[in-house]
């Protein structure tokens, strides 16, 4: 069953410029995206920088003005017109990309982690402290650290604090926006595994955003590939990696480095070959504006953006 | 561009409405009757009441406002209580003097500010730049009235090079050569006082624009391709920085108005600013109301004009 | 601003240490001019407020027909004016008055400007649009004249009403500055995170946005103080500032509109002119140093 349903979402930002600072153009950050995230699964959204992943995630959180389209969570219409607004904040939470900017540098850990608890529950100071300590222990941070400031922690630890804050209200869905891309490679795997553990323990659904296919492969059940504000392909993880249909997906997959050094030469040739194909057949896969076509179902689980003539 | 101009024009309407309401509100707080000034305060209470009724001063405020606005639209600002003359006549003489003063000030601002800004930006951190920056540092912090006083003291009194008051020497035939020279002679010090202080913003803006432009790729490329330094500068800097500055003059009107209130007072120059202070001191409120309204109008229309010109010349939009 | 840039800005923000005061203080210690200015301001303030308690105000403003236009002497350090009043005493009390009104207006207009700006920037969109049109309108008006008119017609004229009238027409600059920073600030991840955690807008404004733009507020208020001292003395100079018989620096300067005084009795107006200039420059020097510290703090971290 779909926990989250995004339907033909469009988010356009005005660009202001010049001395008078008037609107001179528009960025179509998200331009007609539809997908579903099912209960219990990990859905991955992947694409290069600027393709609109964060914007999509923030729209689900209600942090962006939606130009057009609809978002449903369980049975509620999240962007319904006034009056019917539903508060699902404690059901959907977000882990931000940058653990340095997502924690207010002037606040202590206890205030950071307790923020959602203070907003939704009435606890005494002692109970609150106990809850925060439990949450910290759960994400692997010593409960003695509650009086510290964020800058006293490493990136990986900060991201764990971010997770502690996100799970404080027992949400159903967590949107993780590139939760490890700002971290050292050495701690990335650690944080990813820890996220998976938490997901299992708490029965979470994960909406996982990344630009790194390797990370996505490790984490996700299903994947959507995003390019310039549109989805070009969507399918089960095996389908995307073993049978990519769209030339853009093929190129992304080919770009994953091969771990086996003996295959390195072969891999380079393969990558060059895909690159050539990409350049030659670009206009078979994208319309005259360079945008992806609408998605078409090719199997029960697999969709690709191909032109009408199919 | 057209869309912007139309939108900008639409914004101006509520601005004008707000201005008229503000001035009307001000006027209704003034003692007596600032609009028509037809009540003789020495009459008995009953007689005054009767007159108020006759003049419509007991009508609801919006009716009075409507009458006032339509009068103003036809150029009827009532009668001066001090001079027993239509306010319009009184203002007209003074307005011309203030327009000359403002015009000359703006010319000076550009004539002084553009070269100083360019020199300062082009040779930044050299000695000339440090001198110019020192000047803008002082100029920014110096209130115009202190500067004008010092200028008057020094050039008017100590050196005696310039007249210390009035707008023209008496006894000269209007229109004659001597008359014009005398007018300019009287204008020079007040205009320079406004300009030397008002120039600071222009110099600072140009300087930082030019320093920014220098780092831009196209300048570096043009220079690398061997284009003479001065031509690169003149072309690009002119298009990118000087043109917009020329369009700023509408924004300067508010500054010019403030400047003229002080400077006309100090140099006893018979302009609108001087008239304003005079009238307020003798409680000639119909004149005060009219001057504020006209100055407000000038400032709003000036900003409108600048915005429109900028939307046409702003290269950052055109280049795109 | 592109996404990458936003992210960079965000990173710079985060590295700042919890205490902003020490950084301000360090910058002032390093900038000798600012340090001297600050010392001058502190000493002047103490001296002016201290001495004016000792001075007999009524004695100073009392007209003495036998001491009109006395040049400086041992009895009158800086001579006397047309009423035989001691200029030095007036200078002390005038400085105190000018400083007090300057500070009062800065705080009151700062308060209005900050609230207006932060609301406008934080909510953005149509709210911002309408609020900024209002700011534009007030900004373009010839405010000095309007202040003069209100000063003349306000009933029960006093130092407080004078300050209120000034405040009513001088809050727009700070509103604009605060608004553009609040606009950036609300895009930062930790502000956005707060929203996802269910904090109300008011709570976010007061606990996240305002504390983080505090350095901008301090800098702007300092620079505004310099401007307001100038505006007050300008109004007093024209005769629309302090009520009659309350000395201010501008009032002393206004005696110079008498040509003979301007030409021959320098002791009446030159000290006041210099004092205004030096006060404004000193406040500005401190403000500029604070500004550099605030900017550097943002830059250094990247
Ligand atoms: N608040 C905003 N205002 C204007 N443009 C924005 C804003 N947020 C994002 N964008 C633009 O939208 C596009 C998509 O950004 P984003 O969703 O952050 O991409 P991703 O997360 O995939 O890297 C980018 O071109 C970015 O510059
Ligand atoms: Mg992103």
TrEMBL record, chain A:
It comes from the Bacteria. The keyword Transport applies. GO terms for molecular function: ATP binding. Gene3D superfamilies: P-loop containing nucleotide triphosphate hydrolases. Signal peptide: none annotated. Pfam families: ABC_tran, oligo_HPY. Keywords: ATP-binding, Nucleotide-binding, Transport. Residues 4-253 form the ABC transporter domain. Transmembrane segments: none annotated. PANTHER family: D,D-DIPEPTIDE TRANSPORT ATP-BINDING PROTEIN DDPF-RELATED (PTHR43776:SF7), TRANSPORT ATP-BINDING PROTEIN (PTHR43776). Belongs to the ABC transporter superfamily. This is Peptide/nickel transport system ATP-binding protein.
Automatic annotation (TrEMBL), chain B:
This is Peptide/nickel transport system permease protein. It is a multi-pass membrane protein. It comes from Alkalibacillus salilacus. It comes from the Bacteria. Residues 95-306 form the ABC transmembrane type-1 domain. Belongs to the binding-protein-dependent transport system permease family. PANTHER family: DIPEPTIDE TRANSPORT SYSTEM PERMEASE PROTEIN DPPB-RELATED. Keywords: Cell membrane, Membrane, Transmembrane, Transmembrane helix, Transport. SUPFAM superfamilies: MetI-like. The chain crosses the membrane at residues 99-119, 140-164, 184-206, 241-267, 287-313. It is found in: Cell membrane. InterPro entries: BPD_transp_1_N, MetI-like, MetI-like_sf. NCBIfam families: Opp4B.
UniProtKB/TrEMBL annotation, chain C:
It is a multi-pass membrane protein. Residues 95-287 form the ABC transmembrane type-1 domain. The keyword Hydrolase does not apply. It holds the Pfam family BPD_transp_1. The chain crosses the membrane at residues 33-55, 101-123, 135-153, 159-178, 209-231, 266-283. It comes from the Bacteria. The keyword Transport applies. PROSITE patterns: ABC_TM1. It is found in: Cell membrane. Keywords: Cell membrane, Membrane, Transmembrane, Transmembrane helix, Transport. InterPro entries: BP-dependent_transpt_permease, MetI-like, MetI-like_sf. Belongs to the binding-protein-dependent transport system permease family. This is Peptide/nickel transport system permease protein. It comes from Alkalibacillus salilacus.
């Amino acid at each position: 069953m779909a926990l989250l349903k995004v339907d033909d979402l469009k988010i356009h930002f005005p660009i202001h410029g010049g001395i008078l600072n008037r609107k001179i153009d528009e960025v179509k950050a998200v331009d007609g995206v539809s997908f579903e995230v099912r209960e219990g699964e990990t859905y991955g959204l992947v694409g290069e920088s600027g393709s609109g992943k964060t914007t999509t995630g923030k729209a689900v959180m209600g942090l962006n003005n939606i130009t057009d389209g609809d978002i449903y969570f369980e049975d509620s219409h999240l962007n319904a017109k006034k009056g019917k607004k539903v508060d699902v904040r404690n059901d959907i939470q977000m882990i931000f990309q940058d653990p340095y900017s997502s924690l207010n540098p002037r606040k202590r850990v206890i205030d950071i982690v307790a923020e959602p608890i203070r907003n939704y529950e009435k606890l005494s100071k002692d109970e609150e402290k106990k809850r925060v300590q439990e949450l910290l222990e759960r994400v692997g941070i010593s409960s003695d650290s509650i009086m510290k400031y964020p800058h006293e922690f490493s990136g990986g630890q900060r991201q764990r604090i971010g997770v502690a804050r996100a799970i404080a209200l027992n949400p159903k869905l967590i949107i993780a926006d590139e939760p490890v891309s700002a971290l050292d490679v050495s701690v990335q795997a650690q944080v990813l595994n820890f996220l998976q553990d938490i997901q299992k323990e708490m029965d979470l659904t994960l909406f996982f955003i990344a630009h790194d296919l390797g990370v996505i492969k490790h984490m996700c059940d299903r994947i959507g590939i995003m390019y310039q504000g549109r989805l070009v392909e969507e399918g089960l993880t095996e389908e995307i990696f073993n049978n990519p249909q769209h030339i853009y997906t093929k190129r992304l997959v080919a770009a994953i480095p091969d771990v086996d050094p003996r295959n390195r030469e072969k891999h380079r040739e393969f990558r060059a070959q895909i690159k050539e194909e990409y350049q030659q057949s670009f206009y078979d896969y994208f319309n005259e504006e360079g945008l992806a076509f609408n998605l078409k179902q090719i199997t029960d689980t697999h969709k690709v953006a191909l032109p009408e003539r199919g | 561009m057209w869309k912007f101009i139309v939108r900008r024009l639409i914004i101006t309407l509520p601005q004008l409405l707000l201005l008229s309401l503000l001035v009307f509100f001000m006027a209704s707080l003034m003692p007596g009757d600032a609009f028509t000034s037809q009540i003789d305060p020495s009459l008995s209470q009953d007689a005054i009441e009767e007159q108020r009724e006759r003049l419509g001063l007991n009508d609801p405020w919006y009716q009075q406002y409507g009458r006032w606005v339509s009068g103003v639209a036809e150029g009827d600002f009532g009668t001066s209580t001090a001079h027993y003359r239509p306010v319009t006549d009184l203002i007209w003489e003074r307005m011309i003097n203030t327009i000359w003063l403002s015009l000359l000030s703006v010319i000076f601002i550009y004539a002084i500010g553009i070269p100083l800004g360019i020199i300062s930006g082009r040779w930044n951190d050299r000695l000339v730049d440090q001198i110019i920056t020192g000047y803008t540092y002082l100029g920014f912090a110096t209130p115009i009235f202190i500067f004008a006083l010092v200028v008057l003291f020094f050039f008017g009194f100590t050196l005696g090079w310039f007249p210390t008051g009035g707008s023209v020497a008496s006894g000269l035939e209007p229109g004659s050569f001597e008359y014009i020279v005398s007018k300019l002679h009287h204008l020079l010090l007040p205009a320079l006082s406004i300009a030397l202080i008002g120039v600071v913003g222009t110099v600072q803006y140009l300087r930082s624009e030019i320093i920014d432009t220098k780092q831009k790729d196209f300048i570096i490329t043009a220079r690398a391709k061997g284009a003479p330094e001065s031509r690169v500068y003149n072309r690009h800097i002119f298009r990118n920085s000087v043109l917009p500055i020329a369009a700023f003059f509408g924004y300067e009107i508010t500054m010019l108005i403030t400047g003229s209130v002080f400077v006309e007072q100090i140099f006893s120059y018979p302009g609108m600013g001087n008239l304003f202070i005079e009238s307020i001191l003798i409680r000639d409120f119909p004149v005060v109301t009219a001057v504020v309204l006209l100055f407000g109008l000038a400032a709003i229309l000036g900003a409108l004009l600048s915005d429109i010109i900028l939307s046409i010349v702003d290269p950052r939009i055109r280049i795109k | 601003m592109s996404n990458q840039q936003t992210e960079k800005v965000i990173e710079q923000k985060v590295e700042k240490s919890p205490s902003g005061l020490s950084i301000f203080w360090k910058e002032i210690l390093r900038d000798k001019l600012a340090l001297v200015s600050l010392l001058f301001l502190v000493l002047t303030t103490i001296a002016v407020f201290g001495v004016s308690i000792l001075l007999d105000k009524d004695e100073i403003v009392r007209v003495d027909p036998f001491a009109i236009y006395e040049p400086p002497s041992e009895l009158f350090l800086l001579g006397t004016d047309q009423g035989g009043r001691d200029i030095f005493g007036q200078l002390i009390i005038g400085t105190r008055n000018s400083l007090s009104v300057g500070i009062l207006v800065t705080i009151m207009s700062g308060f209005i400007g900050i609230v207006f700006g932060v609301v406008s920037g934080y909510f953005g969109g149509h709210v911002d649009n309408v609020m900024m049109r209002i700011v534009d309108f007030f900004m373009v008006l010839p405010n000095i004249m309007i202040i003069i008119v209100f000063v003349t017609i306000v009933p029960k004229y006093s130092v407080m009403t004078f300050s209120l009238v000034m405040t009513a027409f001088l809050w727009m600059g700070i509103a604009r500055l605060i608004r553009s920073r609040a606009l950036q600030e609300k895009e930062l991840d930790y502000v956005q995170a707060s929203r996802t955690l269910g904090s109300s807008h008011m709570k976010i404004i007061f606990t996240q946005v305002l504390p983080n733009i505090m350095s901008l507020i301090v800098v702007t208020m300092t620079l505004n103080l310099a401007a307001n001292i100038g505006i007050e003395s300008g109004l007093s100079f024209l005769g629309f500032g302090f009520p009659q018989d309350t000395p201010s620096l501008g009032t002393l300067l206004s005696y110079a509109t008498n040509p003979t005084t301007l030409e021959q009795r320098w002791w009446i107006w030159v000290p006041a002119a210099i004092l205004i200039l030096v006060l404004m420059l000193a406040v500005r020097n401190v403000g500029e140093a604070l500004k550099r510290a605030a900017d550097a703090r943002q830059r250094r971290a990247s």
